[in-house]
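Sample A.
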Amino acid sequence: MILVTGGTGYVGSRLIEKLRQRPEPVRVLVRTPEKAQKLVAGNVSIVKGDVTDPESLIAAMKGVSTVIHLVAIIRERSGGISFERMNYQATVNVVDAAKAAGVKRFLHMSALGVVNDPNLPYMDTKFRAQKYVEASGLDWTVFQPSVIFGEGDEFINTLADLVRRPLMIAPAPFVPVVGDGKTKFQPVWRDDVIDAFIKVLDDHSTIGQIYQLGGPEALTYEQMLDLIMQKLGKKRSKIYVPVPLMKPAVFMMDKLLPKPPVTPAQLTMLSLDNSAPQSATEQLIGHRPLALGDGIDYIKKPNAARHN
């Protein structure tokens, strides 16, 4: 049996769809079962539990041979929704529960560019979580994706929103560019990430491996904006805004808006290289990954639902 944490999220919801095609039973950890009944069908069931509550994980792990751990946050919120609790401690809880239940296989969603640096709390907590998985003694495989795109995503849709309606820190018809716009990313399609996860389920040679996942090309932040403008048929001049000048506005939006276009953590990461020079995507899925320019027609539907 496979247990999936984060199965109702952006990547997890699509992963569950593909796991329905496999023969083994799949169990999805959910905090509120009555809101997740639509997942129950075929080989997929749900179990009540919370990655921040170790006791709730005991029953969830019964009969499980493989755990796919996807839970993480990119924005801290009130009520204890912190990077430390959700990215690091939750991983510790899931790993410990898996070991106690005799689980063997553990697939972990990390992040590209994780680093042990308290000044970068998202990257720091993801780094420490990954290291905990590596030291667990389980048969682990770690994935480090670059920016994940696909219908319902947050990052590319947010850039598209900036093109349509520039932020308060930039007068229209200008679109703001973080820093010099030269930070590199290697956007990878959600389905290619999911296919990589499914591939390693049946490949024991991937045990103990860390895989960078990127698309077929590295693009700068500015190049991504250009591509999005072309796709939307809009032309905007660019105004380059140093990160320190953007911080006050981003901080205020994070405090005042329920869904800010950019969070403080995301702003910091926009200045960090996020390319994947050792990307294993093509090796794992067996074909060339989908390029960003070939897979973002969904941004033409600005009101489409998005996952947080």
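Sample B.
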Amino acid sequence: MPTHPDDSPRNGSPRNDSIYDAQYREPKAHTERYADLASIVRQLRQDCPWDREQTHVSVKHLLIEEAYEVVEAIESGDPTALQQELGDVLLHVLFHSTIAEEAGRFTVQDVIDAEIDKLVRRHPHVFGDLETDDPDAVLANWERIKQQESNHEDADDALKSALDGVPAQLPSLLRAFRMQEKAAGVGFDFPNPQATWAKVEEELAEFEEADASDDDKARAQEFGDLLFALVNYARQVGINPENALRGTNARFQERFQYIEAQLHANDQSWDDVSLAEADTLWDEAKTALRSPSASNAS
């Protein structure tokens, strides 16, 4: 494969950038602007009183907020907004790396080096001898390699779980989805969607039984089990439940606000219409706001 002219040592080993084909090299102008941004962040940490006093903990919520703003920009289809929000996420990567560098923990180069090593290691079908053109096989191999890495790094510690690495702070639907992906990656999965749907029906029956009782704890537990089973079915048929519910939330908001606009135009409030009239307005909103992407909404 083509090699980089600079094969200087990196942490005692050759540079990993000699692995990729030369046609994919990042243009020099891009790397120079990245260096400008990194330099600006370093100066802000010294010269700006607000930036200087921040810690990993004090700005962690802002990173979550920026990540959601990226998602919102993607869903809006606005490339300018996406460009801006990705820049904000990149700023946080550099900001946290600079804080760590000041404390002598790691640098942004360490962050990049670790990511390069991981990507190369987990893509043996690109950078190694493994041959496959099956996306599912790639994903399964990724999870196997990740588990092997975890077992190797913690060989002297307590047994590692295949579920390690799924953040507890993830939204619950997404966390359920990711845990199920991890479990499926080691072979713990229903054999087909039909079997998975049978589990949904089983959990629904158990929830109905609990719902008929006065046991609030049992009702909550069985409802959670039902949601978990539905997430699992969604995963097996190629639906991301977090994205699906996000879309439903957006459609509900859009239709509800349509009704509010109609009420406002007629100088009415919610108190002025019956539930049946509101339902008629809801159906009107569905028709007025229907788009190809929402054609299957109910």
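B remarks: The CA atoms of residues 263 and 272 lie 9 Å apart. The domain at 172-236 is CATH 1.10.287.1080 (Helix Hairpins).
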